[in-house]
Amino acid sequence: MKFPEEQIDALKAIIPSVSQANEGGYDYLLLENLILPDGCQPAVTDALLCPSPREGYSSRLFFASQITGGPQRNWNGNIRALGRNWYAVSWQTIPGLKLVEMLMIHLKALRHP
Amino acid sequence: MKTNIIKLRLPGSLYQRIMTDLKRPHDFAYERVGFIFGVTTTINEYTRLITFNGYQPVDDDDYIKDDSVGACIGSRAIRSAMQRVMDQSCSAFHVHLHNHKGQPKPSGDDIAGLPPVIDSLANIDPDQPHGVLILSKDSFFSWVKVKGEIQLVIPEIISAVRYPMVIQFPSEKKAALNKLLLRQSFLGERSTAIFEHIKVGVVGLGGGGSHLVQQLAHLGIKHFTLFDFDKVEDSNHNRLIGAHFADIKRKLSKTEIARRLILAINPKAEITIVNARWQEATDKLQQCEVAFGGVDTYEDRGQLEAECRRYLIPLIDIGMDVHQTEQGFHISGQVILSMPGQSCMRCLGFINEDKLAMEAAKYGKVGGRPQVVWPNGLLASSAVGIFTDLVTGWSGQQERIVYLAYDGNSGLISNHVRLEYLEPDCDHYTLEQLGPPKFIKL
Questions:
Q1: CA B51, CA B39: separation in Å to the nearest integer?
Q2: Is B175 helix (H, G, I), strand (E, B) or coil?
Q3: Under CATH, domain B179-433 is a member of which superfamily?
Q4: Shortest Cα distance from A106 to chain B (angstroms)?
Q5: Which residues form the THIF-type NAD/FAD binding fold domain (chain B) (predicted)?
Q6: B338: distance to nearest CA of chain A, Å?
């Protein structure tokens, strides 16, 4: 899948290291050294964004480990993908978002209200 | 302990392409030559897996007339292979065919002429293993040059991953007559040796997996890798083969129960146990030549299939379910052979987004799903039968795609109707995705 260039550029303005891979029919974006909201442990982590529908979610953001320090969440995603184990919060996004919007909404799950 | 274990795996489509190309007659050369390219996965300190994903035949014009050898190729052909190694940082193997049955052996010309070709490839990228692969009609021979080793290494196993598989264990000796397996000698002259050497993974040791290990042990499988994080409970007792009543009180792990069961049948079995989710020990899975899946969810099946496809491991999945309808209860089940290069569980329509979404919505509310012993036994038996044919080829069936549907109310097991409407190729998993994942920088 080819993502719109302007969306990738916008994503790279936030996180410079973005790369793409496909597995099992899903396209993924690997976001290396993603800075997480204040209070999160770890503060920086790799993340894997699946921008297409998966398991009933319009998109999913997987983290390299379960993140602590944020609000209590339902960590129901625990998957093996692209040679690593990943963890995700049950967090829905609406369809049709741009990549940056998607990422920001997923990161809200880790932010204290 | 062996410190340099190499496993070579070729996808069936690539194997077929190589065989077809190498069998073509040449104007003057007695045999043809090509190069195959692959990616190397360092599984652990001692074990490397090379999965091949590309083939480059030597052009007709690059053969040099020399009646003293089967084939003499010019430097342009070797340079072209070296260029690919440089561009892709991959492994490269010189490949040719000895057109007979049985394990090929390097000829005098091969012994004299091929090590320098390997050296040329290794000079370009010494970090990657390079080598020679000699094919016969039904077997292989290989030498591999590994960084830091003076001697060329002979792989532990070479396999073409197709139906049936072509498997060669270079250390294999003609098996002595085994009275315990006498009644299954129709499975082929090499069947006993294959069962003795092949490494089989069983993921999930519940109702299905416990039947599987019991039958595999009877079949003569010696090397097992068993994955299950769970311990036996009261609710498992109606279907967990090998579980004793006292095990429940002792909270014995399902892997321990399976180990005890296997060893009672075959005391010489070598069993590796993983008391965790398989995702926590993928190195152990990658070493298996064939895997069985007896996992509970579509999500887990999809992940296991992805991992198996990446490392060219045929996966035989079994599962059953009990549904309540207006007419009463209905038992259904399936046996699927997910063969790398062929239709995957998504192509077969067994896994789709709707099922995954429904499953995720029920997460944590599943409760005690109804399960009984006999459908698991029947599905496991069918799966072991498919495995046996896959690795021995005893039935003579070729390129079989397996999706069996079980109707537990009628007791019938038959080809799933979806097999009639299949697309020939799987686009969910490609040869480019073999080995460690490659990310494209954006």
A1: 6
A2: coil
A3: NAD(P)-binding Rossmann-like Domain (3.40.50.720)
A4: 18
A5: 185-412
A6: 13
